[in-house]
Structures are given as C-alpha cells and as structure tokens.
From TrEMBL:
This is Branched-chain amino acid ABC transporter substrate-binding protein. InterPro entries: Leu-bd, Peripla_BP_I. Transmembrane segments: none annotated. It comes from the Bacteria. Keywords: Signal. CDD domains: PBP1_ABC_LIVBP-like (cd06342). Residues 70-422 form the Leucine-binding protein domain.
Length: 433
C-alpha cells in the first residue's frame, strides 16, 4: 500500500516479527510460549492503536468540530481597474479576519475565495459559476462593474447565494428595466452603494445650480454603467433648464478620441459629462484640452481614482467627479476601518470602494449570525442567508447599513470631488433628496 507523502507508517519491529514466527512455527507450543506470544501480540496491538490515535489527532477537538463557510469576491484583480478591485478584495479580507478573531459565529470559521473578473462579463460569469460550485461558498461581495453584474446575477441567484455589491450603480440591477414600474429581478442581490438614479441627478444639480453651467455635451462608453449614468444625468439636467448640446459615444477600448472631441468642440459646451471608467476618461480629458476644448470633464465614481489624474495630466485641474458617500478619511464611523486596514499591512490602498466592501462583507456576516446558527453546512444555509439579509441593519464604516425592498442601500449621501493641485479634493458632500 502506497501512502500519501507526509503520512507515517507504524510497523512492528523486526525482533517482534521474527519472534512471533518462531513461536508459531513448531507443532508443539508450550504454555509459557503461548503466554509470551499473547503478551507480544497485545503489546503490538497497543502499539498499532497508539499510532492510529496519533495519526488521527491532527488538531484540537475544537478545530475538528469547526465548520467552514466562504465569502467569495468577484472583482477586477488584474488589468486597468485592478486598483479598485484589489481594494475591494483586501477590505473583504479584513472583515473576515476580524470576524474570525472575535468568534463572531461560534462553531464556524470564515474564509475568503477571491476571483478575478478582469472587468469582463464573460470572465465574471465563469468566476460566479466556479464559486457557485463550491458548497462552502455562502455569499459573494462584488462586482465592481454593472455590466459584469448583469452576467453574475443569474448564476448566483440560481445557486441561492447572496450577493452584495459595493460599487454597482446601475439602477436596473435592483429595479428592473422599467423605472415607472420597478420590479426586483433577483432577490439575492443587494448593494451598499447608492445608484446612478441618484448620482446622475446629483451631478446635474451641481453643474447647473452650483457651477452655473447651462450647456453640456455628454459622452459614454456604451456599457451599462456609463450609459445609465449619462441617461440619469441628462434627464435631470434638462429638467433643471440645462441644454445637452451634443451626445456622443465611444468604444470601451478606444484610445484616440479625436473625432468625438471635434464634434463636441463645435457644439460649444461649457462642460463634458462622461459616463465610463478612468482608463478612457483620463486620456479623453487630456486630448480635449490639447485640442483647445478647455472645459471641465465631469464623471461619476468610475473616474474617481488617482489614476485618472495621472492619465489626464496637468490639464486635469478643475475636472470633477461624483462618488458615493462622504470621503472615507473624514468619517468618524470609518476611523476604525482606516486604522485596521493600515495595520493589516495590505500593499494596495482601500481605494474608492474599500469602506463599502468592508460594509458589504459585514452585512453578509451579520446575516450569517442568523443563518448559520443551527446549520449543518454552508450550502444548506444559502437561502436562509438571503432571507436574513432583509433584516440586516448596523452602523458600518460608511454609516448606517440597511436595505430597502429592492435591495438598495437606504443611505443616499454623495460627494462632488474636484481636481486641485493634482489631487482629488472634496468640494461638497450632501444627502440627495
């Protein structure tokens, strides 16, 4: 029999084997030799028994009875958006570490299972399928991109796995395609960030009422996030009395925006509102200024990252972005998170969605305190975890964490940021009403 590497084999000694053979070899066995053989056999049995006990010990009795539940992460851990994705992953990791250290769920150990979606819907779908196939996975934090969420949602829903996004802002993910007749598509889906139905109008009000801008050109990348953001912005801006002088689109992988900038420039806008992410927004801003279109570029939370300023260059001064919530480093409620994240020694910053990811993971953990209490295993507790999420309510790093009937956060605080001195600086923070 071949044993796995690292396993010990208990063998009787050569002297014992030889002695036993001699004892049993003769046709006439004396009584005292039978006693000797019996004693030897008894000793050998005890030796084998002791060896077996040592092989089975492997850990403490407490470890032997501890069950495992995993919280998955689906986010871009590589590529252009990895700065945001790694902040999401690390913040979930921190929440899990703290839960285990405090024994938040007696009898259970939590583990993280992180998957890289590469900001791609197809890759994200495969990641969700992999996590759904793991019986120990009971919840997932993610995704970053709304377009990826559209592929991930049905997979996790079919497996009864709760999903909490810290960053998806497209309204249709929770309310369906008809805003006049909202219907929740997936009961397992929640989010800790506010949506574009709030973020777009918030930006429109800032440009029209605060900045005094009445003419805007819009550009988006044709993806769910960018298209939805521009739609929400445009509706509110026109309702306020503003004018959309040009509406253009680009491809998500485009790098040269010359033709679009020419069209926009001829329309004479006072600002450009962009729906998309910073890998395109940064070069767009730089190329627009280089072409003589010296107006601020404004976008949503997708461009709120230091990389935007790096890509846009010095001419990004005055560009604007909205992002969910108040600045993390100014929130009293986030102080403990910021300190713990720093102490944990992560190489990457928590970035724009770290605190929201931390709260998303803790929302799942709060639900697990209910669903795992009497559960035999993680898989059987998947649906009870979804049921428990509806009643989750606690004070998180970003403020009050709770969900409405659609799975959306009940908190609607946003911030406008402005590039000043090569950095994003908070211009105003308000609750949207």
């Amino acid at each position: 029999m071949r044993l796995a590497r690292g396993m010990s084999v208990c063998r009787p000694s050569a002297e014992w084997a030889a002695g036993t053979q001699r004892s049993l070899g003769g046709s006439i066995v004396r009584k005292h030799r039978l006693v000797a053989v019996g004693a030897t056999l008894l000793a050998a049995t005890m030796a084998f028994s002791a060896c077996g006990s040592r092989a089975q010990e492997g850990g403490t009795s407490e470890e032997a009875t501890t069950k495992v539940a995993k919280i998955g992460v689906i986010a871009p851990l590589s590529g252009d958006l990895s700065a945001l994705g790694l902040g999401i992953r690390n913040s979930v990791d921190l929440a899990i570490r703290q839960a285990n250290e405090s024994n938040a769920i007696p009898g259970w150990k939590l583990e993280m299972a992180a998957e890289d979606d590469q900001a791609s819907p197809d890759v994200g779908k495969n990641a969700a399928t992999k996590l759904a196939g793991d019986d120990q996975v009971i919840g997932v934090v993610g995704t970053l991109n709304s377009s990826v969420a559209q592929s991930v949602q049905p997979v996790l829903s079919a497996a009864n796995i709760v999903q909490v996004s810290p960053a998806n802002t497209n309204p249709t993910l929770t309310r369906g395609p008809d805003d006049n007749n909202p219907k929740r598509p997936y009961a397992n889906y929640f989010r800790t960030c506010t949506t574009d139905a709030v973020q777009g109008p918030f930006a429109a009000r800032y440009l029209y009422n605060t900045a005094g801008i009445k003419k805007v050109a819009t550009i988006h990348d044709k993806l769910a996030y960018g298209q939805g953001l521009v739609s929400a912005f445009s509706g509110e801006f026109k309702k306020l009395g503003g004018e959309i002088v040009e509406a253009e689109t680009i491809n998500p992988d485009e790098k040269d925006f010359g033709s679009v900038i020419t069209k926009v420039k001829s329309a004479g806008p006072e600002a450009i509102y962009y729906g998309g992410q910073y890998p395109q927004a940064g070069p767009l801003s730089q190329q627009a200024k280089a072409a003589g279109l010296n107006v601020p570029v404004m976008g949503g939370d997708g461009i709120f990252d230091p990389t935007f300023i790096k890509l846009a260059g010095k001419t990004s001064e005055g560009d604007l972005a909205t992002s969910v919530g108040a600045p993390t480093d100014t929130l009293p409620s986030a102080k403990a998170f910021v300190e713990a994240y720093s102490a944990a020694g992560f190489k990457e910053p928590y970035a724009a969605y770290g605190a929201y990811s931390f709260d998303a993971a803790n929302a799942i953990i709060e639900a697990l305190k209910v669903s795992l209490k009497d559960a035999a295993d993680a898989k059987s507790a998947r649906q009870p975890t979804i049921d428990a999420m509806a009643n989750v309510s606690f004070d998180g790093a970003t403020g009050k964490v709770a969900f409405d009937e659609f799975g959306d956060t009940t908190t609607k605080v946003l911030t406008v940021y402005k590039v000043e001195g090569g950095e994003w600086k908070a211009a105003t923070t308000e609750e949207f009403k």
